[in-house]
Write a structure and sequence with these properties.
By secondary structure, the protein is an alpha/beta fold. It is built from 35 helices and 24 strands. It has a nine-stranded mixed beta sheet. A six-stranded parallel beta sheet has the order 21-20-19-22-23-24, sandwiched between helices. The longest helix has 26 residues. It starts with a helix and ends in a 7-residue tail after the last helix. Bound molecules: pyridoxal-5'-phosphate. Pyridoxal-5'-phosphate (PLP) binds next to α8, α26 and α27.
Length: 834
Amino acid sequence: MTDAAVASPETVRPVRGAAPADAPDSSAEAKKLSKEILAELTYSVGRTPAKASNRDWFVATALAVRDRIVDRWTLEHDPERPKPAKRVYYLSLEFLIGRLLFDALHNLGLTEETREALAGLGVDLDKVRTAEPDAALGNGGLGRLAACFMDSMASIGVPAFGYGIRYDHGLFRQGMRDGWQQEYPEDWLSFGNPWEFPHPEIDYPIGFGGYVEQVMQGPEPRHVWRPAETVEAVAFDTPVVGWRGKHVNTLRLWSARAPDPISLDAFNRGDYVGALADRVRIESISKVLYPSDETPAGQELRLRQEYFFTSASLQDLIHRHTAENGDVRSLADHVAIQLNDTHPSIAVPELMRILVDIHGVPWAEAWKITLATFSYTNHTLLPEALESWPVPLMERLLPRHMQIIYLINALELEAARERRPGDDDLLSTISLIDEQNGRRVRMGVLAFTGSHKVNGVSALHTELMKQTVFRDLHGLHPDRIVNKTNGITFRRWLAQANPGLTEVIKDAIGPEFLDDPKHLEKLVPLAGDAGLHEKITAARRRNKIALAKIIQERNEVYVDPDALFDVQIKRIHEYKRQLLNLLETVAIYNAMRAQPMRAWMPRVKIFAGKAAASYHTAKLIIKLANDIARTVNSDPTLRGLLKVAFLPNYNVSLAERIIPAADLSEQISTAGLEASGTGNMKLALNGALTIGTLDGANVEIKEHVGDDNIFIFGLTAQEVEARKRRGYDARAAVDASSTLRQVLDSIRGGVFSPDDPNRYRDFVDGLLAHDTFLVTADFDAYFAAQRQVYKKWRDRPTWMKSSVINTAKGGWFSSDRTIGEYAREIWDVVPDTA
Ligand SMILES: *Cc1c(COP(=O)(O)O)cnc(C)c1O
């Protein structure tokens, strides 16, 4: 059963020349699936087909599909089978997964068979698909990267575990009230989660607080941490099946459980709330995801979350390692641990504690093991986003770790002092303790110090890392920083999200690109082909009609599918500069009002993204977008030629609907501030042209697609630095640009907020006083680049040629490529691509 299920002949035939497929085979598969789905519906869900909702069908289908994954999974983890030489452990506080049904079906080659099976039962697979809630255990790019990496590790055969937290509530649901963002709790688990296996028997104690004791065992004193409080970490496993079902890895998420479910003393006294209080407090650790993005959460509960999942993961992997290999000292030969940002960097002192205090490994040897095992990915250079924790909090919560951090620091500073005598400035920048701001532990320095490799996520970001945050550490360890430009999984972001375009590509160049995206380059010689343009245009038009329908339903705005769809979808943040896009929108609006009868090009400005609940400016920008949308959309002088839509509740599933319908991709962050971006890659791959700054991976997209196929504008990272150093004067820039002056006047004066004319007065004044993200500095260049967009869009064959080249050159941005680089250059793991 397994072989047929794992790689159905239908999907394998064209590439691998496996057994030729014929219709009866695939429909036999559909019949089998149909029986299995019905059995699951009856015996696991407990429903009859007549009574079943789409949600019930989803659960039954997921369970039937899961069985086939599990067959592979158990085979791969069979104790009789040879162990992989080395495993990768990816520690991430966030996994922004989205829905899993089509991932599983696509990778198993069962999508069409399942469609047929359900159709036979009178059920529509597409409706079943949308009944699955998004697993939104992440904020944005960082969490989505972790999810793409899980898919790629399973696909290229890197034996791996992902470790994180099973939040009861993922990222909040965004609603709109009068154009203001409202946050509502997210409830993805309320109907159960058919993909996961709870393992209440896999649990580890996680300590907090208490004190450290020295006990004599032989000549050396040993440190024993006596925590005041213990939380249990319980495992929930989700199998992650890779492309063509060859490999299945595990995503293991930890849930917090109180050792004592109830205080019977309190209960018997009649104090029913008090009887549960401890349990509620302890289990709050895995209750909610912190919704901040690019800013540290800062609260004690967050530090508890970080230590909770890190400690559970280390205990678990060391348990596996010693069971398989006996000696903890050989850990680095068999284990590579990747720290996704600094959130798990408490792993460094935790591993030292386990090795030295528990296993009695001498300090120097333990440090070698630690360095050889860990590597760390930096995701941001924004100074306000660099994590640090107050020393008193660390001492109270993790007293032994604080001692270990002090000792690591003393040894590192001593080594640096020997190499650079007299350089006290150096010592203060490489110290694990920031003495300037009330004594804090710098988590970035801790992660850097404890890792053999530290990577940035795009070429530019890695270069800036060397020059800024880690300049001195880089000087001391010049081989440690490497670049690993981010990537995206093509299986989700092309094949599943855009089946129309995928079919057109298959017809044009064959299906090999599904196995190796480099084959997309075969499109290059066809880039000018009118027949291909026609097919791609037709496929995109269908996607645009589908998106127009969503905009109609959710925003009650009609948009013309033949207009240019100009898309900016990402977290709302000042550095991402949604404001710059809005200012241009107002500039077009003003121009159209001034000359209503000119032949204006139809355009739809589409926005989506969440703002951190406490980020007031970001929330005001959302309100501004909605105010502009209302004004523009209801102005009859525009004849519907300009529309603006802010789609609420941006998440992975909404991204999958917007991206295949986009013509223009807005990647307009202040240069030097977006570490990589991955939304830029998804949109380019699907044939949208990028308008963007030379920031993050935009630089590499430009190199791959060529200058003629991208709209680059604005200050470079170096120029941004220089401007800031000189002291930037926004007022002067605005005085020099009559368009911008007029735009800001209209917003400030209440043209878009007649109900509250002063709503944006302080905001605009603030921008003129401190334009931290240089919106006004880049406005004219951005406006001019947008005019180039218009020009090219009018010459549709040239536009389409650029679009095809964007898809053709997108292969390099596959996360399979990224993971291959991590495997070879950081983890020293050989992927099993056989
Ligand atoms: C890809 C993705 C992101 C990251 O987008 P950027 O434009 O790179 O910031 C954020 N959220 C979701 C839901 C995504 O799919």
